Amino acid sequence: MSYGIYESQRLRLRPLTMEDLPEVAALLCDERVASALYCGVQPDTEAAAGVLRGYLSAPECYPFAVLERQSGAFAGVFLLKRYGERDCEETVYLGPAFWGRGYATELIARSFSMAVELLDAEEIVNYVKLDNTASVRAQNTLGFHLDHVEYYDNCPKGLGIFRRRAASGTIRTGRWRHFKGGEYQVLGTARHSETGEELVVYRALYGDYGLWVRPAAMWQQTVLADGSPVPRFTYLGEI
Length: 239
Fold this sequence. Notes:
Helix content is 23%, strand content 41%.
């Protein structure tokens, strides 16, 4: 299966190979990293090699090495694979030296268009341990919704199943109302040239009628207003 290189603003994704075993094994044998993964912490390089071979041989699975564009350093692993008929699942794990930089959020935002291009996916499904607060926060920031929670002996706080559409085709042009009351005209959607993130292009229907862009994932989020969940934006109709 042949596939190419993808880039975001700060990261480069290239196909993962067995030559990456030393870097992959360092992550899979690190309890800080692998304890959050389905495969769990691997005891040694040989066991990690089996996991890597599984990535490379799995049908409709696209494993990537994640590199920092500026330094070229191996930052982690990103997997995009088929889940059901028209959905896909993502796995992201980065070395501790690369935590806290927003890289996982950047990767997932870039993956929205990759999921469509590589797998023709309609929806992305992610499994996240609910005690992994950074990963849960990234899901919420990028417009995923918590579909349900599953409980296992090794996951007492629950495994959250998060979903969102791979593409935002539900954002229609026309008049929308923000939950705080302002009204806006959506002109269309665009894609960030560096990160691939999908953006909504819209105009305020008040004041100086300024032109703005906002991440599509944020546009579709649910927020709390007076303690109750409401859509951030509500569609009102055509203009």
